[in-house]
Amino acid sequence: MNREYSPEMRERALRMLAETRPSHPTMMSAVRHVAGLLGMSPETLRLWQRRAEVGAGVKPGLTTDAAAEIKRLQKENAELRRANEMASTGGSPPTRHAGSGSAT
């Protein structure tokens, strides 16, 4: 089941996880405990915890902001490539010639 949670719920879950972590032998044990209390999937809470650690610089990885910036730059790059291609062909979109392409 795919379910969206509010930012407040995410903050609450992560706060509960941080508070309960010392009383559990492993992080996953604490995750399962808190997820059960909140009626959510342990995997959802585990992913939130992982993203929070990456965002705080505790664990290596790509932050959400950095991933969004990369996606934005890739889109901009693709748009610029299309504009350059159109400029080099005299303003018309690239065309395929009758003999080119793959044979089916």
Automatic annotation (TrEMBL):
Q: Which GO terms describe its biological process?
A: DNA transposition
Write out the ranges of the annotated region (Disordered): 81-104
Q: Which SUPFAM superfamilies match?
A: Homeodomain-like
Which InterPro entries does the entry mention?
Homeodomain-like_sf, Transposase_8, WH-like_DNA-bd_sf
> Which N-terminal stretch is annotated as signal sequence?
none
A Pfam family matched in the record: HTH_Tnp_1
Q: Which domain of life is it from?
A: Bacteria
List the Gene Ontology MF annotations in alphabetical order: DNA binding; transposase activity
| Name the UniProt record assigns to this protein | Insertion element IS6110 uncharacterized 12.0 kDa protein
Source organism of the structure: Microbacterium barkeri
